[in-house]
Write a structure and sequence with these properties.
With about 290 residues, the protein is mainly β. Helices cover about 5% and strands about 45% of the residues. The protein folds into 2 domains: about 150 residues; about 130 residues, no CATH class. The chain is built from 3 helices and 17 strands. The two termini are about 15 Å apart.
């Protein structure tokens, strides 16, 4: 195995990363490989962390819309330290480093098969993460299981929340506010920040041509209220059922803005993907002896 390690000092933080492609786990449904470990065992960091990037493959992963979530059930280094993040510590970290907003330069490939999990930093003398055990939620959305909602002619009613019963059942409220820079009726709309999950993939590649960027006035704005974190993605289709490439997307403060490569047609179709319980398949995994940098 070839191992690459680098160290970068940033103010009070030492950041070490190692690529550890040999650690893997195989189940009947998925195969999990550790691609990268970023370790923050540094003096002066009040909330040190260890990030492990996992890559998923297998027949189920290939068929899934996305890896919607990954939960860690057990994580122990070779000194016996429990590496699971305490819920109160996680709340404190989120207060210091809020993550309710992001900007994405478009969407690349589908499906997305990588997921980064965050752990407590291992002991200073630890050499490996002895056990990393968890479960992955694979999303298989369809209209039948409530995971796919199709909204037609949504641009004709700026400021109005979509009234689809599947959205109401998932406690998701979405309103189209209008084109970027335009005025829309947003009265009586109460929204909150949604989780920092980048727009997920579709069943087709979404590659943005190199060098192309969205032009001015080619963005659509939405308000989103998703208290149960069910919203997985919003995808745009033309009248022929072909996906419209998103060149840039931004999320934050209960809003989403999507910018496009070309002029926006008024007959766009919106597909909303939801992580309903019926659309989720949960698959366990276990990885042992993950090398630390």
């Amino acid at each position: 195995m070839k191992t690459s390690t680098f160290v970068c000092a940033l103010a009070w933080l030492s950041l070490t990363s190692a690529f550890v492609g040999i650690a893997r786990a195989v189940t009947n449904d998925i195969r999990v490989v550790v691609d990268n470990v970023m370790d923050m065992r540094a003096t002066g960091n009040s909330l040190p962390r260890c990030q492990v990037q996992l890559s998923f493959s297998g027949a189920d992963v290939a068929d899934a819309f996305e890896i919607h979530d990954v939960r860690i059930m057990a994580a122990v280094d070779d000194t016996g330290r429990d590496l699971r993040v305490d819920s109160e510590q996680e709340k404190a970290r989120r207060r210091l480093f809020p993550s309710n907003a992001y900007t994405s330069p478009g969407n690349a490939y589908a499906p997305q098969t990588a997921h980064t999990v965050e752990l407590v930093s291992p002991a200073r003398d630890a050499r490996t993460i002895k056990v990393l055990e968890g479960e992955a939620d694979l999303l298989f959305p369809t209209p039948e299981n409530g995971g796919l909602v199709i909204i037609k002619n949504f641009m004709a009613h700026p400021g109005d929340a979509f009234s689809d019963p599947l959205l109401k059942r998932s406690n998701v409220t979405i309103a189209y506010l209008g084109k970027e820079g335009s005025e829309a009726n947003t009265s009586n709309k109460t929204v909150q920040a949604i989780p920092a999950l980048p727009p997920g993939p579709t069943q087709m590649p979404r590659r943005i041509p190199f060098g192309k960027r969205p032009g001015p006035g080619k963005g659509l704005q939405f308000s989103v209220d998703d208290p149960d974190h069910r919203l997985a993605d919003m995808v745009f289709m033309d009248s022929y059922g072909r996906q419209i490439w998103v060149g840039m997307s931004s999320v934050g403060n209960g809003s989403r803005t999507y910018q496009f490569q070309s002029e926006i047609s008024s007959n766009l179709q919106l597909r909303v993907y939801l992580a309903t319980p019926e659309a989720i398949k949960t698959v366990p995994f276990k990885i042992e002896n993950i090398a630390l940098p």
